[in-house]
TrEMBL record:
It comes from Occultella aeris. Binds 2 Zn(2+) ions per subunit. InterPro entries: Cbl-indep_Met_Synth_N, Cobalamin-indep_Met_synthase, Met_Synth_C/arc, UROD/MetE-like_sf. This is 5-methyltetrahydropteroyltriglutamate--homocysteine S-methyltransferase. Belongs to the vitamin-B12 independent methionine synthase family. It is an enzyme of class 2 (transferase). It comes from the Bacteria. The gene is metE. L-methionine binds at residues 457-459, 510, 625.
């Protein structure tokens, strides 16, 4: 009997996943209330259960089937990668005390692993593929035990089933889990977590059996790692791992001991890994057809796939423009033709929808015309259903899609001739500053800084008073002037604090910013912002990505008054604070009708004007943050250099108008930067601050070997945890950094902004940072200033 006989049909239309925070951030509020001790674990679980129930009712109401596994079940309290680690007991030794007798973590334990406790560092957090979502990095060693120790995903499935809905559980697949992991602290040099695949598969098999016993017909295993060719492990090794993993889970573990398996591969073209998967017994394979071409399909693949399903991800799960349904239909038809008549083709989103907000119907302030161009998660469900039904049955949806495309192309603001002609007139000279030596001389003459200058990354704690003031302004409860006065008072407080702490280059603290991208979007033409368009960035933290829909320009200075006010309160240099073009693009929903490079240059020109206005206001140091530079790096090596060319160029365009005496800083965080160190050098910033404390300065050898010659501030204080680093600890980090990059280049700063921290730990940490710097300066024989 073929392994595929008796397999339940894959649904004709589905989505790869759905936002889990709730339309009004219900999960964020419930989780934070639990953390604050205002609610109990059962109360938090009840909120989560309600949310899951609302989600499946909503998806069923939108038209997804309740009996065919079209509704994904992908809930997690914090992060989907952490959830796998928790299910399988793969928790670092330093958290062993949190595990119950059965090896499971309770909710409080799960959050402790995510957030750390005392000297026990949390799991490292880093970006999830090329998105603004951040996952927790599993730590795997030769002795990590893999065993199914808890089953909340199975219980969630069973609850939905009891409610009459056959959902499709979604879990991160074993190859991706191990490729995303890092070696545990005790692992020997050169250890690869992927070497533990066989042991991990035993636990995945147990998990699949548990789903089968609970009645699951299909389970989705997400394997986004397969679309990337940038792993340390050679391609042949990844290919072999795919073969072994899915042979074990689909053939060695035969049905009915397991549900049918759907392996989804979002975020890029699957390429040669498609044939690897086809050679196993998985019942369905998902392709991201938004980000790339369909893979090569030869006779062998066609034959191997007979009786199975390929799921065409043609509705963009990562952006919010309405789908061109005709183009998507053509792409599905081409895939169908390539696969031949024996292979079923279903329609889906390209990625989970957790990258987009819940629904456009909750945005009363967005202009109707713009709103009509958009599809958030719920509207995308309608699109997959329309595509599955086809242009005859869903004629109205197809007609609407054509109207939208035409309307967008001709709408005022989409093309602004003045913006286009300025960009067209750019010359090579617009991308270059003077030689670094000349700049250093000019800057030394005006900025009287000690060796190892101290500074912070920009934001100071966003207190609830600041957020409430902004909410009150929005509701009309206070006037714009009252709001501005409250912000000026906060800036005065932050300046006074920094002077007291003895920092050298001060910041205004960014109290006026709801978010470092949204704030600029609110002040630039060509953008719109949402009211309720929240998207999870990590854990309980959310953002409202702005919508970059038209040509970008700056109607008026944005940050100048705040920076001028701060500078008026101190004799120290105050650093102006801007967000760079690549980060503004990466953390917004960006128009899809022109190359990103062109859009980035429009944003860069607006920032260039802002820097000129800051200089005119007497600001001699300006930081242009690019934390997302690494985020948009293509997942395939062949595409990376073109990306780095345009992204670096846009930063240079933004900053190259600055005078020699203006010190340009940049800041990078939330990623591993080793492999793009050359591009960071290419930014040509005078000073670069970079996250380093969490990884214990692992970046320093890369900086050294790249010949990076300008100022560098490797972070000496991990701002992701309330833990206060001791003076001795910071002194050690500074000593290591000094030995590596030298006194002339070294700056002292935290890893990132302080907006998510509270004041008590911020003050204590910065006191220690300044004390450590002074002790190192003394050792160098430098005068102690500040
Ligand atoms: C630095 N990072 C950022 C990323 N992406 C961004 N877009 N911005 C970033 O800063 N990516 C990588 C990293 C890590 N990611 C994040 C993401 C989000 C946060 C964060 O702190 N988010 C806040 C929300 C920020 C915000 O928009 N605040 C608004 C609205 C605040 C609010 O909730 N108001 C209440 C009323 C007031 C109250 O009672 O408190 C309401 O509306 O109900 C504002 O300040 O006006 C979050 O809370 O999740 C950090 C790092
Ligand atoms: N200037 C920003 C950078 C965060 S990546 C801040 O300090 O919050
Ligand atoms: Zn940062």
């Amino acid at each position: 009997m073929s392994v595929h006989e008796g397999v339940p049909a894959f649904p004709a239309a589905t989505i790869l996943g759905y936002p889990r925070i709730g339309p009004r951030r219900e999960l964020k509020r419930a989780v934070e209330s639990f953390w604050a001790g205002r609610s109990t674990a059962p109360e938090l679980s009840a909120v989560a259960g309600d949310l899951r129930e609302r989600t499946r009712t909503n998806l069923a109401g939108l038209g997804l089937g309740t009996d065919d596994a079209s509704i994904p079940s992908d809930f997690t309290f914090y992060d989907q990668v952490l959830s796998v680690a928790a299910h399988l007991g793969a928790i670092p030794e330093r958290f062993a005390h949190l595990r119950g007798p059965d090896g499971a973590l309770d909710l409080a334990g799960l959050f402790t692993v995510a957030r750390g406790e005392g000297d026990r560092a949390p799991l490292e957090m880093t970006k999830w593929f090329d998105s603004n979502y951040h996952y927790l990095v599993p730590e795997i060693g030769p002795d990590t035990e893999f065993r199914l120790v808890e089953t909340p995903s199975v219980e969630a499935f069973a609850t939905a089933l009891a409610d009459g809905v056959v959902t499709r559980p979604v879990i991160v697949g074993p190859v991706t889990f191990l490729l995303l992991a890092k070696p545990s602290e005790s692992a020997p040099e050169g250890f690869s977590p992927l070497s533990r695949l066989d042991d991990l598969l035993v636990a995945y098999a147990e998990w699949l059996r548990a789903f089968a016993e609970a009645g699951a017909t299909w389970v989705q295993l997400d394997e986004p790692a397969l679309v990337s060719d940038t792993w340390a492990e050679p391609s042949a090794q990844v290919s072999a791992a795919v073969g072994r993993a899915y042979q074990a889970l689909s053939v060695d573990l035969a049905r009915p001991d397991r549900p049918a398996l759907f392996v989804a591969t979002p975020y890029g073209p699957l390429g040669e890994r498609f044939a690897d998967l086809a050679a196993t017994g998985v019942e369905a394979i998902g392709l991201d057809l938004v980000r790339g071409e369909a893979p090569a399909i030869d006779d062998a693949v066609r034959t191997a796939l007979a009786g199975r399903t390929v799921v065409a991800g043609v509705v963009d799960g990562h952006n919010i423009w309405r789908t061109d349904l005709d183009a998507a239909t053509a792409s599905v038809a081409a895939l169908r033709a390539a696969l031949g008549g024996d292979v079923d083709v279903a329609v889906s989103t390209s990625t989970s929808l957790f990258h987009v907000p819940h629904t456009t119907s909750d945005e009363p302030d967005l202009p109707q015309r713009l709103l009509s161009w958009l599809a958030f998660a719920d509207e995308k469900v309608g699109e997959v259903l329309a595509l599955a039904a086809g242009p005859d049955a869903a004629g109205e949806a197809f007609a609407r899609s054509r109207e939208v495309a035409a309307d967008r192309a001709g709408a005022p603001g989409v093309v602004v001739p003045e913006v286009r002609s300025r960009a067209a007139g750019l010359t090579e000279a617009d991308f270059h500053r003077s030689a670094y030596d000349a700049r250093v001389a000019a800057q030394d003459a005006v900025l009287d800084l000690p060796p190892l200058p101290t500074t912070t990354i920009g934001s100071f704690p966003q207190t609830s008073e600041l957020r409430v003031a902004r909410a009150s302004l929005r509701k009309g409860e206070i006037t714009a002037e009252q709001y501005a006065e409250a912000m000026r008072a906060e800036i005065a407080h932050v300046i006074e604090l920094q002077e007291k702490l003895g920092l050298d280059v001060l910041v205004h603290g960014e109290p006026e910013r709801n978010d470092m991208v949204q704030y600029f979007a609110e002040n630039l033409d060509g953008f719109a912002v949402t009211q309720n368009g929240w998207v999870q960035s990590y854990g309980s933290r959310c953002t409202r990505p702005s919508i970059l829909w038209g040509d970008v320009s700056r109607p008026a200075p944005i940050t100048v008054d705040w920076s001028r006010h701060a500078a008026s309160l101190t004799s120290h240099p105050v650093k102006g604070m801007l967000t760079g073009p690549v980060t503004i693009l990466a953390w917004s929903f960006v128009r899809d009708d022109q190359p990103l490079a062109d859009t980035a240059n429009q944003v860069a020109l607006a920032l260039r004007d802002e820097i000129a206005d800051l200089e005119a206001a007497g600001i001699g140091v300006v930081q242009v943050d690019e934390p997302a530079l690494r985020e948009l790096l293509p997942l395939r090596r062949a595409a990376q250099s073109a990306y780095l060319d345009w992204s670096v160029a846009s930063f240079r365009l933004a900053t190259a108008g600055a005078a020699d005496a203006t010190q340009i800083h940049t800041h990078l965080c939330y990623s591993e930067f080793g492999e793009v160190i050359g591009a960071i050098d290419g930014l040509d910033a005078d000073v670069t601050s970079i996250e380093a404390a969490r990884s214990k300065m692992e970046i320093l050898p890369d900086i050294n070997s790249s010949g990076f010659a300008r100022g560098i501030g490797p972070g000496v204080y991990d701002i992701h945890s309330p833990r206060v680093p001791s003076t001795a600890e910071i002194t050690d980090l500074l000593t290591a950094a000094l030995a590596s990059v030298g006194e002339r280049k070294l700056w002292v700063n935290p890893d990132c902004g302080l907006k998510t921290r509270g004041y008590p730990e911020t003050v204590a940490s910065l006191e220690n940072l300044v004390a450590a710097t002074r002790s190192v300066r003394e050792r160098l024989g430098a005068p102690v200033q500040g």
